[in-house]
Amino acid sequence: GAGPGVIAPSAGVDIERDVKTAREQSLLGNYEASLERYEAVLGVTPEALVATLPNSERRATADRLERFQKQLREEVQLLRRITAEWADLGDFGAGAAAAGGGGSARAANEAPGKKDMLDD
């Protein structure tokens, strides 16, 4: 079986691979994909993961898993905050131009006569 400290796959979830993928996706800005992986990992209970371990290892492993899941929940909260910040920014760049603006009203009010930063 899995050695000490190794989290065995459970219910079709490969914990190590899925956490790595979640973190990679968040670094790439693929926040929705990242959240899906985090949710899959957090959906597996520590009890389900330790059920196959010998009784002597279950408590310590369950405690480690609970601390690990707490850390993952904190990462998910940060990811949700980042996602909310992005949503609050609205469209910008090519997305804003395609939406018919090309720039924010605030920028136009702050710098009349300037089209962008390159007009200095």
From TrEMBL:
Residues 96-120 are annotated as: Disordered. The lineage of its organism: Eukaryota, Sar, Alveolata, Dinophyceae, Peridiniales. Pfam families: KATNA1_MIT. It comes from Zooxanthella nutricula. Transmembrane segments: none annotated. This is Katanin p60 ATPase-containing subunit A1 MIT domain-containing protein. Residues 16-80 form the Katanin p60 ATPase-containing subunit A1 MIT domain.
